[in-house]
Amino acid sequence: MFTNTHAHIFTWVVALILFVAAILLFKKGLAKQMKIVHMTLRLFYIFIIITGAGLFFNFASIDHMMYGLKTLVGIGVIACAEMVLVRMKKEKSITGVAAGLVITLLITLYLGFSLPIGFDFFH
Ligand code: HEM
């Protein structure tokens, strides 16, 4: 589970879908349904961190600096996603945190895919 990136990718793809679903439900005024999706998303934050940390402890010796950076920015993505949803619920402006989310997500995807483990269907 921690020797390849499949579980890790699965957790953040599901989280991304749940994040979009939570926003759509909120926009439709379905607060109760949104709350359930938001709680499930929080569970997936934990799965992302567990699978990411597993990869980190297995592979960080390859390049401490880049793996450390990937981990930090990855946690930044989770923090921004959470702040977008919480601020949206409180009807506060989300421009800053949404921009932060896009930027940290792009950097995380770039670092993730450029780091050495890579995605290989046959492993
Ligand atoms: C929503 C947040 C995150 C996203 C979108 C994300 C995305 C990715 C992607 C695209 C990869 C490369 C997969 C591959 O090449 O097969 C990856 C690998 C990895 N991620 Fe994440 N990640 C996130 C959060 C985290 C967190 C919180 C941690 C640490 C606790 C972490 C640690 C790692 C490690 C160590 C790797 C292996 C890098 C390698 O390919 O050598 N990630 N992640």
From TrEMBL:
Location of the protein in the cell: Cell membrane
Primary site of residence: membrane
Membrane topology: Multi-pass membrane protein
Keywords: Cell membrane, Membrane, Transmembrane, Transmembrane helix
One Pfam family matching this protein: DUF1516
Keyword Cell membrane tagged: yes
Gene Ontology CC entries for this record: plasma membrane
Entries under InterPro entries matching the protein: UPF0344
Residue intervals passing through the bilayer: 6-27, 39-59, 65-85, 97-119
Similarity comment text for this entry: Belongs to the UPF0344 family.
Name of this protein: UPF0344 protein HXA33_04680
